[in-house]
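INFO  loader      accepted 1 record
INFO  loader      residues=356
INFO  predictor   begin
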Amino acid sequence: MPRIKVVIAEDSLTVRKRLVEIVSADPDLELVGEAADGKEAIELVRRHRPDILSMDMMMPLMTGLAATEYIMAHFPTPILVVSASVNRGELFRTYDALAAGAVDVMEKFAGEGNDEAWAKDYLITLKLVSRIRVITHPRGRLTSIPQSPTSLGAAPVSLAPQKYSVAAIGASTGGPGAILDVLNGLPDSFSLPILFVLHISEPFGTAFADWLDGQTARRVSYAKEGELVSAAAGKVLMAPPGQHLSVRDGRLRLSLEAERHSCRPSVDVLFESVARDYGPAACAALLTGMGRDGAAGLLKIRQAGGLTVAQDEASSVIYGMPREAALLGAATQILPLSEIGPFLGRVPASPMGQRR
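INFO  predictor   done
INFO  writer      dumping tokens
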């Protein structure tokens, strides 16, 4: 079996040499290049067409974000962002890179003490990300907000006369770009509260809602305990990092209960609570992601009479979660990412606060 070709882009010589040591010691990996800046990274990717690029964000001459945008637009390559995530600006650049097509992110080791556990996780993640299919992903398409759902070519799917009071969305790997597409595909008139769960490891989730708020015309914030769902008409309320988000009696609930599918927040926790509280007045979408979180919860919403959508395989970064939903028969519609926002945008709204 051919070895996995790796390029490492990291401006710190000390960190880069340690990453090179880790990769070079693994018999399944082949280091084909190392770069100290974004321009070198682009040239190495162009020349060697590696299976995986390990990318730092803060580099001289050309940042990791700029290099990511160029690579994903011209010769798509699975990219693992390895970031120190020490400040808000770097976090925002990391989110930009994920939205531009980078596959995953992990925190850079501190460079002190025993880093063997980190090295093991790094190797596992490199191998996993290298197997993910990526597509041409020009960053520019994320900057324009469509004025109507028809501008994205929504399929003319018939909707039942049922009216809805809440929308719930879940995503994992590939989720930052996917949720942007969905939100930007909604018309200005869309008035349902949107509850959103994204799998993103700490500490990288700490400012994601703020970043997303700046990327879309729709207001986005982290959910707060006891907040009325009906008071968030047209807004996006996101599960805080490391906390489950659910609904009970029309109010948001946050908890530190056990992980579901190794995830906290869990999409299943949100979807199951929405099914119980809203029943046929709920609509939900399960987007790209690894694993099965959200599939069973989406089925609960469908069984309760709600409207359910799963992203299709062709447009998913990883067809894991939506695939599981499709296999369970949990989705009333399976749609390309570009059609999910417009489809939800045509959902008729019921009076705010109406539940099952």
